[in-house]
Amino acid sequence: MKGIVISNAGPLMVLAKLNQLHLLRELYCRVYFSSAVYHEVVTAGIRNRYEDAITLKVFLNQEGWHPIKTEDLPKEIRQLTLDAGEKESIALALRKQAELFLIDEEQGRREARRLGLKIRGNAGVLIDAYKRGVIDKHRLLFYFTQIKSRYDIWISTALINRLMAELKI
């Protein structure tokens, strides 16, 4: 994908937990994220001793991907009942006219869609990787099984089961 891709916190955290951050580079070349997202997933994550935060920090440094400061959020975005990372991410995606916005949180997804953003969650990223031949069916099944069995990844088991049935895996 050649267009601009913005990520909220959830996709970065889940792909770090699955040790699949490289998919972001392979699928989208470059992913942008806000300062609030970086603070949430890296700074606060390291402070709370989350292993995936360290993995994410190393990946971002290796790729040379740095947070983008998002100031002066539009009033419409400031008034949303979302956390700071989601607000900044949506504002950044709108400002940069992102081709794709990566987000898992349901309320944030609803607001992003309402504002005209094309969205994708972690399951969609993994399916993209499968459809584009970056991972095979067995790896996709492995990642979906991990998602369903982990207590620290909050993606609906029903959604994963439905996707697995649709893909016949």
Question: How does this structure look, described?
Answer:
The chain has 169 residues and is mainly α. It has a single domain, classed as Rossmann fold. It is 60% helix and 6% strand. The protein contains ten helices and four strands, in the order E-H-H-E-H-H-H-H-E-H-E-H-H-H. The chain has a four-stranded parallel β-sheet with strand order 2-1-3-4. Helix 1 crosses helix 3 and helix 2 crosses helix 8. The longest helix is centred in the N-terminal third of the chain and has 13 residues. It is globular. The mean pLDDT is 95.
Q: What distinguishing features does this structure have?
A:
169 residues; mainly alpha; 4-stranded parallel beta sheet; 10 helices; globular
Short description:
The protein has 169 residues and is mainly α. Helix content is 60%, strand content 6%. It starts with a strand and ends with a helix.
